[in-house]
């Protein structure tokens, strides 16, 4: 220990011995104090600070004549210059000194204040630094700096709260920043960690220090920054702990702010789309809405509902106070809003993982709301709607809530979306009681003042909807029904049509939606008046405003009205009806394409079209006259790609429902080939560009239909073209020949099939997956009922792009063909066989593109379709599939594929081949009595027998169980009258047509039989291949002018290419073409 250190410690001990007796400290010590800072060195700081600490604690400095401010300033200056890390130690000593609070740090210690300001902006301070700086939170600038620093990140915020409670003088808090924006981030941290006492203490401190308004605002801020995943249980528990009584907890909630949010949010609901399906049905047109275009849905409303449910147990049903009423109505509105959320939400923006939670919230909200409906009768509710002042609703929460809802609906016009929700809540009340009401009690107890209700159409619609089951058992509705239908006839001007006309027609439609069996047997509107209404509606549709956008709501209601009439007794409808309905349908379909945002018009028009088509027997002449025009409009709507791009803006249930109606129409009604061919390009575009699987399915199903039709014509045209070119001697003319090609749109759709399946198969829906697989399905449609030559050109096109390999590889990457309990279980209808599935029980051969796999999800359908495509590849690409199979190096994979194929696919192919050969025996033998075909299903053999002078020639085709993964064998056990090398050439040619050129077994048999037939008819064989008939069914038509040997054109062309010269392969002389006298045969 150094000498200064010993001396200073003696001074410290002396000063401490004089504690409480400052007069005992002599002048020497007092005179020494101003000189103490000069002794400070880097290794000698703490002892001088101890001297200062003892001196300040003694209290003698308060009586000294020298300046204590200068002493502290000198200490601060010297320590700052020597070792800044010791400043906190100095300030800690100074801050705890007696009488130090008489000084103003900002005014008296400028250097120290600057240091404190800098410290208050640091985002990472030590405990010692925190103890100092948080003792100065009574300084507004320092406090604001600390608050701002706490917002750097959550860790800084957490530290602030800890240090503030530990070191600050909370009594000195200023009211200057009493607002949520200043403390908001800290409050959020507290609410998110509210289960810990320290954060409860912080919130409680501010709640007591300031008004409760700031505290309630913090609750709102917390909930607005929360989500449906947030667990509010700890928050509710804390809030309950603050309330003097449990019911008082409701006063701590930011209900007013929630109500504002709800009122604003519901105004952005798209009422036009909601008309398609909602509890008020067509009556929603009575709500004017707010004409906002930026429609959107707000999940915050649902979060509010989840949060408020935490306090549902404290809604005292015995009290009808305003807070409880507000909360119950809020519960009801949010529950109904969730209903609309699921209907209107864009599927691209929808978080499906939250669906179950949102549904749970709705169920709970609706349960709480409905639990309030008790201890009342239906007549009491009707009395409230009748504005009966005599009814006593005091202390009855249920009646008070209903009364509040009723008051919101007294306006005749200008109703907002919020009133629409109020009407739906009233309907919930009425429906719950009407369900238990009998016809007798309704007739005797319920008195409806329709005159009063007419002033509030939305309220009237609620009554009509709820009481629909009494329409035909009570005469109370006769007068209002007649009144409403008569009012339609009084609407004349354009303004009246849009307001009164829409109102009266909307209300009348209610009487057609009773849902009771008696409706068909009752005349809702008298026949003579119905004719007058039809005339009136015709005038509306001919008015100057009938094609304005503002008239669309009227069009929708007229469409619904006419469609509802079709659900009754169609035989009694007047002739005027049919013409009006059909022409309205035509007009609407055209407008639906120019107004794609109004899906409601498209939806109701498509429903009318379906109803008209069902009832066409009652108006056959009108229907036949306009049927083609209607179908053309429907097809225009389907193929209108620009409209479907707008559907993406919605991509919700209304869009899905419209697409389902279009699909239903396409499934049930047949479009003409002319219409489909006119829209062929658009249909390919629909399949390849649409992001809606429903629309893709429609496009694919229509293409499936027209491709099969067009292929029949194409085969004929192709054969005619080939016949015209068949006699040409110019072998180089191949480049200009008529070619068979799969459409480029389909090829483009399968090019990136690997990318389509990279991730998409794991999702419930993917338009890329369906586009690729349905395009393959349509490609295989091109292979049905075509000739060998066309098939060869198609196969070459697919081989050139490597598309077949990609498909086959993908099938066994995505489908587990070893799991018998998975998709394989759905591939047959019988008890599973250990070896083969019988053809009649095998479902892999059946796929309906119109309906998919009924009862199974999209993912299952796509995997099933992959296996179906594998079956089709066996059927049409057998030799190529065999080549792909033989190229597989993975032995385990190869065994799995072979086992699956033998069990599920090959039996179908073999069975079909044998069946086709059996059906085609006459064609194959060309009615030659010397030739016969024998088919053995047991041995999977086909024998082609030729009888010559009571001796036989035979060719036997044996089909293996794994065909076409394994080659068929073509054998000739019996030969007569044919040289051996020629016989072998015929057998080899028949073998090649199956195994190398993807021909069918029927074509192989046909080739062999015709070779035999032509041989014995005197035709010469080709000097190159030794066959009379080439694989393309042509005869040797090219003759060497020197040696006179004959050759097939195709064989000669190959010889020229391989030899590099146009010389005869036998005599080597130059080959000059001449046309033979005989004409070649073409397939």
From TrEMBL:
| Source organism | Debaryomyces fabryi
Q: Which SUPFAM superfamilies does this chain map to?
A: RING/U-box
Identify the metabolic or biological route this protein is part of. Protein modification; protein ubiquitination
Do you know which PANTHER family this protein is assigned to?
Answer: E3 UBIQUITIN-PROTEIN LIGASE LISTERIN (PTHR12389:SF0), ZINC FINGER PROTEIN 294 (PTHR12389)
Subunit architecture: Component of the ribosome quality control complex (RQC).
InterPro entries the UniProt entry points to: LTN1/Rkr1, LTN1_E3_ligase_6th, LTN1_UBC, RING-CH-C4HC3_LTN1, Znf_RING, Znf_RING-CH, Znf_RING/FYVE/PHD
Note the superkingdom of the native organism: Eukaryota
Where would I find the RING-type domain in this sequence?
1022-1068
Q: What is this protein called?
A: E3 ubiquitin-protein ligase listerin
Which GO CC terms are listed, alphabetically?
Answer: cytosol; RQC complex
Q: Catalytic activity, per the record?
A: S-ubiquitinyl-[E2 ubiquitin-conjugating enzyme]-L-cysteine + [acceptor protein]-L-lysine = [E2 ubiquitin-conjugating enzyme]-L-cysteine + N(6)-ubiquitinyl-[acceptor protein]-L-lysine
Family of this protein: Belongs to the LTN1 family.
Q: Which example biological process does GO assign this protein?
A: ribosome-associated ubiquitin-dependent protein catabolic process
* This protein's UniProt keywords: Cytoplasm, Metal-binding, Repeat, Transferase, Ubl conjugation pathway, Zinc, Zinc-finger
Function according to Swiss-Prot or TrEMBL: E3 ubiquitin-protein ligase. Component of the ribosome quality control complex (RQC), a ribosome-associated complex that mediates ubiquitination and extraction of incompletely synthesized nascent chains for proteasomal degradation.
In alphabetical order, the GO MF annotations are:
ribosomal large subunit binding; ubiquitin protein ligase activity; zinc ion binding
EC main class here is transferase
Give the enzyme's EC designation.
2.3.2.27
Pfam (any one)? UBC_like
Cell compartments where the protein resides: Cytoplasm, Cytosol
